[in-house]
Every structure is written in C-alpha cells, then in structure tokens.
Design goal:
alpha/beta, 6-stranded mixed β-sheet, 6 helices, globular
C-alpha cells in the first residue's frame, strides 16, 4: 500500500486534436512521482461524454490505478462535462475533497468558485477531477495529497487504517 498507483486522464478537445500541447497531464505526472508514487497510465481524450466515461470505467474495472486524476473539463464552458461523467459512474461521492480544493484555491483566486469538480469512489478506485490549468491542477493535487494514502487504506479495508483514528 506504500506505493500508490495513479492514472491521469487529460480531458481537452484541443490537446486531443494536437492543437495545444497537454501541459496539465505532464505536471501532474511529475507531482505524483515527486510524492513518491507511481504512474500506471496516462491518456488524453476529447470533451466527449462517452470517451471520458469509457476510459474511467475501463481503468476502474481493470484496476489500473488506486487513484485516477482527471484534469480539464471542470469549468463553465458548454463542453466542460468531466464532473457529470464522473458523477455518472461513481458509487459514492467524496465531496470533502472538492470542498477542500475549492476552499484552498479561493485563497489564491476568486475564480476557484467557478470550479465544478467532482470526486468519488468506484469499487476501490478514487476518482478526483482537477482543473485544466497546470498551476491549478498541481495546487489542487497538493491540497488533497496528505489524505490520499489514508483514503486508499480505507478503501482497501487495510487493518492499519484504523490506527490513525485512535489519536
């Protein structure tokens, strides 16, 4: 359980079509590796409900990662549908993660109020939506990073997870 496994899904029409380089996915890869964890899969998909859904479902069903981070598609644009896709497949939502990210981000920029990010659990996989900007993606990842190991211990029903609750 020490080496958490992450998959990163970049959701961007422009990056998928090659019009704009994916900057958020690679900075998240670096942030995860710098935290001492591993990357098992990365992919870029367009802002398309079916494509996003299929990748998330496949990764969960095949146990590709303990945590899937999405980047992009969480704003107000008509094509920003990542939270809706995430909510359509999770079995349990985890609103505290999004509340913490928005709360911390509002101290940096009032635009954080416009985030519609979602997070939740499917099976034993945690899915978290992060902003599409590289800076915002890493800032939000850093907010939730301290609880991720414990979250996965709990999801996997690890007996040692209870030790942190006795303090």
């Amino acid at each position: 359980m020490d080496n958490l496994r992450f998959a990163i899904l970049t959701v961007s029409d422009r990056s998928f079509s090659g019009i704009r380089a994916d900057l958020s996915g690679p900075v998240l890869v670096s942030a995860v590796i710098n935290a001492g964890w591993q990357i098992t899969k990365t992919e870029i998909v367009p802002d398309d409900f079916g494509r996003i859904r299929n990748s998330l479902l496949l990764w969960c069903e095949e146990n590709i990662a303990d945590i899937i981070l999405t980047t992009g598609g969480t704003g107000f644009s008509p094509r920003d549908i990542t939270p809706e896709v995430t909510k359509s497949i999770v079995e349990r939502e985890t609103p505290g993660l999004c509340e913490a990210m928005r709360n911390a981000s509002i101290a940096i920029t009032p635009n954080a109020m416009l985030s519609r990010a979602a997070a939740g659990i499917r099976g034993t996989t945690l899915i978290v939506n992060l902003p599409g900007s590289p800076k915002g993606a890493v800032e939000n990842f850093n907010v939730i990073k301290p609880v991720l190991h414990h979250a996965i211990e709990l999801l996997w029903d690890d007996p040692s997870a209870e030790q942190g609750h006795q303090k």
